[in-house]
C-alpha cells in the first residue's frame, strides 16, 4: 500500500489479494527519499519535491497507519507491516535499498519459511495502480523485479474508471486529430 490506499473496505488490491490468496501480508511502503526531486524510478525529472515529508499530510499519516493497523487486527487478526525510512531508516530499510528491494526480500523470507515447512507457496504482489507518469515507472520497476524474483505481479485499478490511454481524447491525439475547436470557428 501507499499513501491514498489506507483503507480496508473498498481497497481493490486488498480485495483481489484476499480472494486469490490463502494468506495476505499487508505492507505500507513509503520512502521519502524515493519520492520528489531526484527520487527513485520515475521521479528523476521532477522539478519540485512531491514527497509528503514535512507536510500536514505527513503528520496525519501516522494516525492513518495506526487506524489501518487496528482495523486489520480487529477484522482479520493481521498487522500492517511498515516499509519506510521516514524518521530514520529501520534495520530492514537501509538507505541503499528501495521499497521494492525491501518488499521482495520480505516476501522471499516468508516464502522460504513456508517452503521449509513443506507447504506449497504461490506468491504474488498486489498494488493499486496510479496514473502519474513517475508512479507508473515505479510500478513498472516493481513488476519487473517481482517477475525476476519469480512472483506474480497484480496491478489493480483503484483511482480511475478507465486507464487514461483508453480515453477517447488520447485515441484522437494518437490518430493526429485535432481535439479542440475554437468556439468562433
List key phrases describing it:
globular, Crypto/Photolyase_N_sf, two-stranded parallel ribbon, alpha/beta, Rossmann-like_a/b/a_fold, two-stranded parallel sheet, Rossmann fold
Report what the structure shows.
This protein has a single domain, classed as Rossmann fold (3-Layer(aba) Sandwich), CATH 3.40.50.620. The termini are far apart. The longest helix has 21 residues. Helix 2 links the parallel strand 1 and strand 2. The strands form 2 sheets. Strands 1-2 form a two-stranded parallel sheet. A two-stranded parallel sheet has the order 3-4. It is of the alpha/beta class and 185 residues long. This is Photolyase/cryptochrome alpha/beta domain-containing protein. InterPro entries: Crypto/Photolyase_N_sf, DNA_photolyase_N, Rossmann-like_a/b/a_fold.
Summarize the helices and strands and which ones pair or pack:
Layout: H1 12-20, E1 26-30, H2 56-76, E2 80-84, H3 99-116, E3 124-128, H4 133-148, E4 152-156, H5 168-174
Parallel strand pairs: 1-2, 3-4
Question: How would you summarize what this structure contains?
Answer:
InterPro entries: Crypto/Photolyase_N_sf (IPR036155), DNA_photolyase_N (IPR006050), Rossmann-like_a/b/a_fold (IPR014729). The chain is α/β, with parallel strands linked by helices and 185 residues long. The chain is built from five helices and four strands.
Amino acid at each position: 500500500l501507499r499513501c491514498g490506499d489506507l483503507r480496508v473496505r473498498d481497497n481493490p488490491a486488498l480485495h483481489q489479494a484476499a480472494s486469490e490468496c490463502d494468506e495476505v501480508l499487508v505492507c505500507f511502503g513509503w520512502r521519502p527519499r524515493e519520492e520528489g526531486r531526484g527520487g527513485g524510478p520515475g521521479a528523476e525529472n521532477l522539478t519540485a519535491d512531491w514527497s509528503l515529508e514535512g507536510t500536514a499530510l505527513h503528520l496525519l499519516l501516522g494516525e492513518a497507519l495506526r487506524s489501518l493497523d487496528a482495523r486489520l487486527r480487529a477484522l482479520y487478526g493481521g498487522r500492517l507491516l511498515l516499509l519506510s525510512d521516514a524518521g530514520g531508516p529501520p534495520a530492514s530499510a537501509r538507505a541503499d535499498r528501495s521499497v521494492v528491494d525491501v518488499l521482495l526480500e520480505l516476501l522471499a523470507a516468508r516464502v522460504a519459511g513456508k517452503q521449509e515447512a513443506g507447504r506449497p507457496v504461490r506468491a504474488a504482489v498486489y498494488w493499486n495502480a496510479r496514473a502519474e507518469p513517475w508512479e507508473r515507472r515505479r510500478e513498472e520497476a516493481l513488476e519487473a523485479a517481482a517477475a525476476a524474483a519469480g512472483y506474480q505481479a497484480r496491478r489493480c485499478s483503484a483511482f480511475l474508471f478507465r486507464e487514461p490511454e483508453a480515453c477517447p481524447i488520447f485515441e484522437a491525439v494518437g490518430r493526429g486529430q485535432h481535439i479542440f475547436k475554437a468556439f468562433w470557428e
